[in-house]
Amino acid sequence: xxxxxxxxxxxxxxxxxxxxxxxxxxxxxxxxxxxxxxxxxxxxxxxxxxxxxxxxxxxxxxxxxxxxxxxxxxxxxxxxxxxxxxxxxxxxxxxxxxxxxxxxxxxxxxxxxxxxxxxxxxxxxxxxxxxxxxxxxxxxxxxxxxxxxxxxxxxxxxxxxxxxxxxxxxxxxxxxxxxxxxxxxxxxxxxxxxxxxxxxxxxxxxxxxxxxxxxxxxxxxxxxxxxxxxxxxxxxxxxxxxxxxxxxxxxxxxxxxxxxx
Length: 261
Ligand SMILES: [Zn+2]
Ligand SMILES: [Zn+2]
Prior knowledge:
Blueprint: E1 5-10, E2 17-22, E3 25-29, H1 35-44, E4 52-56, H2 62-65, H3 68-75, E5 78-82, H4 83-91, E6 99-102, E7 107-110, E8 113-119, E9 128-134, E10 137-142, H5 150-156, E11 161-165, H6 170-174, H7 180-187, H8 195-205, E12 212-216, H9 225-238, E13 245-248, E14 258-259
Helix pairs in contact: 8-9
The chain binds zinc ion (2 copies).
One zinc ion binds near residues 61, 63, 64 and 144.
C-alpha cells in the first residue's frame, strides 16, 4: 500500500513541499525549503530522500523553489518546470542540471502517474496546478491562486484527493500591519485565495469520488488553522460529507502520510 499517496512536508509562505508517492518512485512537488530541511522533513515521515525520482515545480516563487537545485543535483534527479520558470531559475542561479520543460495544458507521465498541468491566476511568471492520476484515482493540487475560474473548477472537480489553498481571512489581512502594496497583492485576482473563496470552491469541486481534502498555504499572520478547519467542516456538514478526511497543512510540521493504493 504505497503505490499512490501523499505526504505534505509543509505549506505556507515560508515554504511549500509535498511528496507524491507514485508506483515508480516518489515525486517532490515543489521544493520550498532548503535541501537539508527537505531531507529532515522526509526523514521525520520515514521517507528516504534517495527514493525521490523527480521534482515538479508549480512556479518560481522562493517558497516553492528554495531547495530545488541543491536537492535535485545532489540526488541526480530531473526537475519539471515550465520554460518561463526555467529562465528565471537560470537568471537567479537555481536552475538544476537536469530539467524537463512542460507547458500549462500538457499531460505527461512521471513515476508511473499521469500528470496534467493547468494555469493558475497568480502573480508569478507562470503558475500551474497539477492533477495526478493513477487508475481510478485523481489527486489535484492548487496552492497559489488569486481566484477560481472555469478551467480550475473543471480540472479539480471530482478529485479523490483535493489540496487547495485557503490563504487568508480578508478582515485579518486588512487590519494587519502589512504594507498596503502587499495587502493589495494578496487580495488581488492574481494573489492568494481567501477562506470564503476556498470554501465556495470546495462546494463546487467535491463529488462522491472525493475522500480527502487538504487546505494549504495558510497565512501565519492573516489566518489561523482553527478558522480554516471550522469553515471547511461547515461546508462538509452542509454537503453531508462528514466522511471526507479533512486536513490542514502546517508550516512547521509535516502531516502524516496517507495512501489510496
Ligand atoms: Zn506564489
Ligand atoms: Zn506560495
